[in-house]
Amino acid sequence: MACYLKKTLIVTCIIALTLCAGNAFAQQNKNKKDAQAAAKAQLQNIAPQFRPPHPADKMEQRYFDIDAKRMIENINSEDALPRSREFKRIDSTYYVGWMFEGVYKYNHAEDYLGYKNAIQPLERALYLIEHDYAKALSTRTSDIMTLYPIRMIGPDYTLIAYYLMQCYSNTDQPDKVYTLLRRTLKWKLQLHYYMDTYNFLAWTVHRNRFYTHDKYAFLKNSIDENEKLANRYLDTSMMQILNNEAINAPLEKFLPGYEHKEKMSVYHYKNIIYSYSFNIDSANYYFDLMRKGGGLPHNNYANFKSICGDFRTAEAEYKIASEQDPGDRRLQEWAYYSTILDIYKARPKTGAELARNMIKAAGSTPGYGWYNIALARCMLYDGQVSEAQRYADKAAEFKELHIGTTLGQSQYDFSIQLIKLINKEQSWQMDQFEHSNWWYNPSVLMSMARKLGEKYLQQFLIINQFAQNPERERVIYKLFSTESTVSWDEIWYLVHDFSTQYFINRFQKEAETDNRAYIRKYFELFATRLRMQQGKYAESKPILDKLLRDPNTDADYEKLFIARVCQAEAECAKELDHEEEQNDWLYKLYVLYPQLVPYTGMPMNMRLHISGDIDPIVEKRLRNCNIHWVTNSSIPAPDAYVIFTKNGDKKDITYYVLDRNGNYIVQKQSFAWQKAEDAGVAIAYKLFNIGGKDIYAEN
Which of 52, 136, 401, 589 measures 20 to 30 Å from 624, CA to CA? Predict the structure, then answer.
């Protein structure tokens, strides 16, 4: 998913070359005058074939007034911009000043305009270095004394080309990316430094795989053809590395580990393509090669383990990825996907806290929109529908830049629209939960009818957009994909109202044929719940029972899955008139994931213990919510405690919920209130751990 930024240690390599090949010079250069004389001799005698067709005094000026200074300047520092101006004043036809300006602007870009502004100086730098140093760029040699005088040209050229490629990519110009990559190939570089051209060609094709030749001439006409093309580019990249072995072998002592880094880069992109195509064995093979080589990409490996259903390992790998600095402003995928894992673990509040921290850190830079989507999702699974809508709207209003990732605008928009769809469905269910008499209350029925209409309009909007998405078969319907930006549970809300038999057949086939042992049960659950919509409750129950016994289920990391099975069991029991079983399954669902219960349409059994300075209006409004208040101790039900306190004008309600064994399900906490009607509804939701504190915060 995330682009692998090759950070070759160019400086180290240059120092090694300088120390080894330039040792004779270093011994003689005891003062500045001697150093200048030696440099002048080097320019005149060592590398005249590489010198541009400029007068000798101009070349000396470049060397002494620009090159000598840049050696002690950090191109990534805040001084890069004033240095660029100085260098251009000295010689505006020399590429170095333009390179410094372009890199500075790239490093400080935070939006579309920022990257666009970096393009012009980088384009100028690329043209000038190609114009003046074509001979040096096209030189292939094993002789260190030939390579030494032009030691800066290759690294500089690939650095300029790399940043220019990123600017084109970040401003959505893949055709220019492709043209640039083809342009760099003509030099047949023996040392690629920053520019793994064939790897980046593969990345560019993969990133735009869902388009066709009609849109971008460098593409084929289907996703499968584009993926094959990307793979061929990677094979060519490996072949190029092998072909360069002979010429680079004598340089190995000056560039230790160079070939190893080149091969690791190819392995990285192989992982991306094989993970996307669900070629699990091949992906594992290349991940193992990278692990053995000391270069495992933890974020991508976590994504891979997640689509394989190994959420425990995925979480550990995301944690490692969180400790690594990507070096630029972009979406931190580890954070976005970690919030989804928290939802799977029935800890949406934990995920929400992470999303808030990322929003605070990102500000209005790339990633901000994605983090708002993540926060909206966490609010959704914490039962806070209005808050979920608020953050989804924030994401929709933000112009996100999709930098260094295959996650694009179509996935971004789809994630927002799907959250909005679920919000509308849950908003409709809220009317049922807040009014036990909803079915004969005209105002509530009118509200529900309006919300149902809004839900169908939202579904129609998504389906119309979705119909044009060629990836829907392998990214949406194929639960758990490296390119999916939504949870498996969200897909249910998309499909459960449409073409039931089609999806039954599809998900059942996936349950039988998918090569991911931990994932098959999810397809089986979908197929079974769809059969239930056809009224096949009796035949569905034994399948649900079997799913709960699945040995490939991690009870800590798949609580959402277990909770949905319990919900389906309760629905079956209800339709089969097995009241005791329904009560039992609802209780299990509540203990596992209480925030889900108000949106199931099934009233929860609860024993209410209310005390203190009770406000009768609040109590009445609470009891009018769609909860079964029971007193029979034989009915499986949690014990809800509500305590009213009053101190002058300050009115508080303390609440907590215990399970049948006396353990906390909802942590003891309080909130202040003013309006009795609102307080009654608020406490009803809070008894399902909706809002309030994170129950895990102090554990």
Answer: 589
